[in-house]
């Protein structure tokens, strides 16, 4: 190839090299971590608090893998029940005080965990 042909290719090579280096990482820069749970069987833990007919969290979306366990710790100033709108549906009865419960969902989608009394969507499980 002539010198003129190489001169034309130089900008293309530089653009390709820059693009490849932007996609790669270095040992000095570890990958960013996310709050997304893994689907390798590790459980996800969430604490729900009921106080004066209000829930914390309130409608928060939580990522969950198909078949992954959600460990739910409920601290409540009075007894109640959550409805998990999965297939099949699940109900979680909790007492006044602190109790622990487990939820697993076998199908992908968004599953609401809600209270009917008082009416509130407590969690949205984004199952993948």
Automatic annotation (TrEMBL):
Record's keyword annotation contains Signal: yes
Location of region: Disordered: 25-44
Highest taxon above the source species: Bacteria
Signal peptide: 1-28
Keywords assigned by UniProt, alphabetized: Signal
Protein's name according to its UniProt entry: EfeO-type cupredoxin-like domain-containing protein
Amino acid composition bias (Low complexity), ranges on this chain: 25-43
Keyword Signal: yes
